[in-house]
């Protein structure tokens, strides 16, 4: 439960949302895509390497004043390491633990686009369909394709404009529906011609969420549960728009500010299918492998999914494809917003996976603590010769 804060703080949080948000039918039980290829990791990584990974984690936290973080590294044939450091709740002096629930933020996008690609595999939609076939009123909607939405090349406006901020500031606890979020996009001027640039926005993914609802005939949360979460057994992963339902032990989120530090007020509904999910270290590790290896999709669809390019504006990736990013040969997604950062990545050649969650966001220099920890840990594994496969 989020502690109450003064209205001035609410307004400050709302004012930062534009920057924050710019950065967030069932599969048959016998379908072989419903169960990912398992590659269990037995044993522990070498003690010396564990110490080096711990140092990377703690040094990064110290450098950027991150209150708490959890991380895990899994390398088939070599072993695993998981760790928690710092505080989940500063005021209550509650330590972070590896079992806690964390917001996925924009990692949610990777689930949403996977749902879309499943529908492509089943012949219900085409990536070359336009959004106008499913949602009325999107500027250039008769030219913007689902592929362009998934790859962040649509050019449509984001929803975090003046109208949204006014509504959010007036009632920070309001539960925004997917239709509410998408309504802030309709009729707005385009940012650029479809396909001309690659600008990362939450609105792109939320429109895809509406396509999922239209085609499956289910609310987004039900489609996600039936088509991905249940088949994979991700019991600690949920799509959650009402923060009051977040009853599992979890970390508070923080942003840099004068002491004493106070948790950022939470409203998961403002992210929608672009960022409203929560998960755990263990569940996120499984998702990282499924996402990067394409276990829920046909091979040709996964191959098409990995076609992308560098972002012109957005989070740190070498390239961004269809609801998935690539950094130094690692495929996955990161997330940031309202006090949390996250990174979930898998290296297909070696089968290695890295997951990091941290409870600080919106650093003045735009550092993404979880993504930076991931990069440093990935570099360390490479130096140890563990990524050769």
TrEMBL record:
Cited Pfam families: Beta-lactamase
EC number: 3.-.-.-
A GO term for molecular function: hydrolase activity
Protein's name according to its UniProt entry: Serine hydrolase domain-containing protein
Organism, as annotated: Microbacterium koreense
Cited InterPro entries: AmpC-like (IPR050491), Beta-lactam-related (IPR001466), Beta-lactam/transpept-like (IPR012338)
Domain Beta-lactamase-related, chain residue ranges per copy: 54-370
Enzyme class, first EC level, given as a word: hydrolase
PROSITE patterns recorded: PROKAR_LIPOPROTEIN (PS51257)
Hydrolase found in the keyword field: yes
């Amino acid at each position: 439960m989020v502690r109450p804060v003064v209205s001035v703080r609410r307004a400050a949080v709302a004012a930062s949302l534009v920057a924050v948000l710019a950065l967030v039918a069932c599969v048959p039980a016998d379908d072989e895509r419903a169960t990912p290829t398992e590659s269990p990791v037995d044993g522990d990584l070498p003690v010396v390497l564990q110490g080096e990974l711990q140092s990377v984690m703690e040094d990064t936290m110290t450098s950027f004043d991150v209150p708490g973080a959890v991380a895990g590294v899994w390398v088939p044939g070599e072993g695993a390491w998981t760790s928690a450091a710092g505080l989940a709740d500063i005021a209550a002096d509650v330590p972070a633990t590896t079992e806690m629930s964390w917001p996925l933020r924009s990692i949610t996008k990777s689930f949403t686009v996977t749902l879309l690609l499943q529908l492509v595999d089943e012949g219900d939609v085409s990536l070359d369909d336009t959004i106008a076939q499913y949602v009325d009123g999107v500027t250039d909607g008769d030219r913007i394709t689902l592929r362009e939405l998934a790859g962040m090349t649509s050019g449509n406006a984001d929803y975090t404009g003046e109208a949204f901020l006014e509504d959010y500031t007036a009632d920070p606890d309001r539960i925004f529906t997917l239709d509410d979020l998408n309504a802030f996009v309709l009729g707005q001027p385009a940012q650029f011609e479809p396909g001309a640039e690659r600008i990362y926005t939450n609105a792109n993914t939320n429109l895809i969420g509406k396509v999922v609802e239209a085609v499956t005939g289910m609310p987004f949360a039900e489609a996600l549960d039936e088509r991905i979460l249940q088949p994979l057994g991700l019991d600690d992963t949920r799509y959650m728009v009402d923060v009051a339902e977040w009853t599992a032990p979890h970390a508070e989120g923080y942003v840099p500010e004068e002491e004493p530090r106070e948790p950022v007020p939470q409203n998961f509904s403002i992210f929608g299918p672009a960022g409203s999910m929560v998960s755990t270290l263990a569940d996120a590790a499984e998702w990282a492998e499924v996402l990067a290896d394409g276990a829920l999709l046909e091979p040709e669809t996964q191959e098409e999914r990995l076609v992308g390019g560098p972002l012109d504006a957005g989070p740190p990736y070498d390239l961004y494809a269809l609801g998935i990013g690539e950094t130094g040969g690692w495929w996955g997604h990161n997330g940031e917003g309202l006090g949390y950062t996250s990174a979930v990545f898998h290296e297909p050649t070696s089968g290695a996976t890295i997951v990091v969650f941290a409870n600080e966001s919106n650093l003045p220099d735009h550092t993404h603590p979880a993504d930076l920890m991931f990069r440093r840990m990935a570099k360390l594994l490479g130096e140890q010769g563990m990524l050769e496969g």
